[in-house]
């Protein structure tokens, strides 16, 4: 028996009555077949509908061997009439996205001759793959044309045709089709073979907005939002911009310039800070006597380049034979740089790592890593190993 697909009579039918033809227990729930249904099964890139059949929830809908199988969370008695209600909000969002996809795919095909070779409708956005390269400006032109056609509120026609009837019609299709073919047509916009559900006039798409484009398999993958989802995205973006402009005490239209200016100021400030640290290191080194000792120095929140700079300068100025410069970055966390005139720092760091629960390594001349030990124990062990405390760190 052929099931009557009510969504082809009208994509706007939200409720219906059907008779339960069969109900069996499957892996993901009960599998219910009806004599007629308004539930759209997954297909043509469009997700399935969800909703209610009587008191049970419809979790998934798939078409298998000409039958439409509703996977439900409860059984239904065979032979009984049952009231069906689809989740209209979900369906209408899908209709907006799907119809918007037709419009832009048709315009891109018309303008650039590219085919839609991959289509994915997620709950958040649509991605479409085209077998040719586009620039962002090209997409913006398509977007303007698509939105103009939306505001013109053109009728979208859908119907079944035989191959003979379609002989002279140029339409987009992903695969070779047999039997009666369903054609969805937007006058001057697109003609495409498609089994999905669509809105009846372009105005209902509401809005199309491209949100991204990447190079993909020799062509491009574009991201698209339509209707309610595009408006929700606009509100998210407006919210972000509002927050940024409040934080910077500027008008929203000036946000990019203000952030750019802030980045320059921050870079200049980092340069000044680096110079201050360099001078501080020089001052600390100047007061130390020349020596052939193994010195250690403990600083707070120094970066690895600053630690290396400090260690190198200690050696250059002849203030130590071996310099161990540490940055206390928290309790039991000391990042270190170990440098020497003549010693083997790889071996030295290995030995200290063992004693100080550390990790890291390096070359003969310089090693770096982290010790995980409390400060008191760290100082005691370093002194025991012959290191002198250079800045009375402990
Ligand atoms: Zn379609």
Walkthrough of the structure:
- Helix content is 34%, strand content 31%.
- It has 394 residues and is α+β, with helices and mostly antiparallel strands.
- It has 4 domains: 4-86, Beta Barrel (Elongation Factor Tu (Ef-tu), domain 3), CATH 2.40.30.130; 92-235, Threonyl-trna Synthetase, Chain A, domain 2 (Threonyl-tRNA Synthetase, Chain A, domain 2, 2-Layer Sandwich); 250-287; 289-389, Diaminopimelate Epimerase, Chain A, domain 1.
- Strands 2-3-7-6-5-8 form a 6-stranded antiparallel beta barrel. Strands 19-20-18-17-16-21 form a 6-stranded mixed beta sheet, sandwiched between helices.
- Helix 2 packs across helix 3 (136-151).
- The longest helix has 32 residues, at 255-286.
- The radius of gyration is 35 Å and the shape is elongated.
- The N and C termini lie far apart (89 Å).
- Bound molecules: zinc ion.
- Zinc ion binds at residues 44, 98, 102, 184, 194, 196, 198.
Largest sheet: 6 strands, antiparallel, barrel
Give the number of DSSP strands: 21
Give average pLDDT, whole number. Answer: 94
Distance between the termini: 89 Å
Strand content: 25-35%
What string gives the helices and strands in order? EHEEEEEEEHEEHEEEEEHHEHEEHEEHE
CATH architecture of the largest domain: 2-Layer Sandwich
What small ligands are held by the chains? zinc ion
């Amino acid at each position: 028996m052929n099931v009557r697909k009510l969504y082809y009579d009208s994509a706007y039918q939200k409720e219906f009555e059907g008779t339960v033809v069969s109900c069996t227990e499957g892996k993901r729930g009960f599998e219910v077949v009806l004599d007629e249904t308004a539930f759209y099964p997954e297909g043509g890139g469009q997700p399935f509908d969800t909703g209610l059949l009587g008191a049970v929830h419809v979790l998934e809908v798939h078409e298998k061997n000409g039958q439409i199988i509703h996977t439900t969370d409860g059984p239904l008695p065979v032979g009984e009439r049952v009231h069906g209600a689809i989740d209209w909000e979900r369906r209408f969002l899908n209709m907006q996205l799907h119809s918007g996809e037709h419009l832009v795919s048709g315009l891109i095909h018309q303008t650039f001759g590219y085919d839609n070779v991959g289509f994915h409708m997620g709950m958040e956005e649509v991605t479409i793959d085209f077998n040719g390269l586009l620039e962002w400006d090209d997409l913006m032109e398509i977007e303007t044309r698509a939105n103009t056609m939306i505001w013109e509120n053109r009728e979208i026609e859908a119907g079944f045709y035989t191959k003979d009837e379609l002989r002279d019609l140029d339409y987009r299709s992903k695969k070779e089709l047999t039997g009666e073919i369903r054609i969805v047509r937007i006058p001057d916009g697109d003609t495409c073979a498609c089994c999905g559900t669509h809105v009846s006039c372009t105005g209902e798409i509401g809005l199309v907005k491209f949100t991204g484009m990447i190079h993909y398999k020799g062509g491009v993958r574009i991201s698209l939002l339509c209707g309610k989802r595009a408006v929700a995205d606009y509100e998210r973006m407006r919210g972000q911009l509002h927050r940024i402009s409040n934080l910077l005490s500027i008008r929203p239209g000036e946000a990019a310039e203000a952030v750019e200016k802030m980045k320059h100021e921050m870079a200049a400030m980092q340069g000044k800070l680096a110079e201050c640290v360099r001078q501080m290191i020089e001052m600390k080194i100047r007061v130390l006597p020349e020596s052939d000792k193994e010195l250690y120095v403990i600083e707070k929140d120094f970066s690895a380049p600053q630690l290396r700079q400090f260690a190198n300068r200690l050696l250059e100025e002849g203030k130590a034979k071996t310099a161990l410069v540490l940055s206390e970055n928290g309790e039991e966390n000391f990042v270190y740089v170990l440098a020497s005139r003549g010693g083997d720092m790889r071996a030295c760091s290995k030995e200290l790592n063992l004693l100080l629960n550390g990790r890291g390594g390096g070359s003969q001349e310089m090693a770096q890593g982290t010790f995980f030990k409390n400060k008191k124990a760290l100082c005691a062990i370093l002194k025991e190993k012959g290191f002198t405390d250079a800045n009375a760190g402990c």
